[in-house]
Amino acid sequence: MRLKAPAVTPRHLVVAALIAGLYAALCLAFAPLSYGAVQVRIAEALTLLPFLLPEAVGGLFIGCLIANLFGGMGLIDVIFGSLATLLAALLTRRMPNKFLAAVPPVIVNGIIVGGYLSILLNLPPLTTILYVGCGQAVACFGLGVPLIHLLQQRLARKTDEGSRSR
Is residue 79 assigned to a domain? Predict the structure, then answer.
């Protein structure tokens, strides 16, 4: 039996585009913090969104690609940083709870982004992996988990209101 791919609706495209724009805008708005060996990308809080919204996977990938085009680290960052975000988003989508949903972006970006930044910036790999991983942990656990918690509460309230009005 072959599984069908879910249909892409206009709503999915709009949500993905909004997430892409928000991710890129947050990276650029907080540019000094968003790029380099020591970084805390505020936008990485959004990397937990695939836990709730499958359309966030594509939005995060495109948003990261756009943000990295302006980051000054070159084509390696655009390609590998965006692919790291895509991989982390796909893994986050499969996590059973919001706390574990924060783990893939921290580990994947810590290793991949920290790894190539060590080469680009001529720094020890372990140092850059730890710097990027710690920044990711701040963004994902400190901002992302509370964001997902808030969104879950909001969606639950909206569902409750919808069922009462019937």
Answer: yes
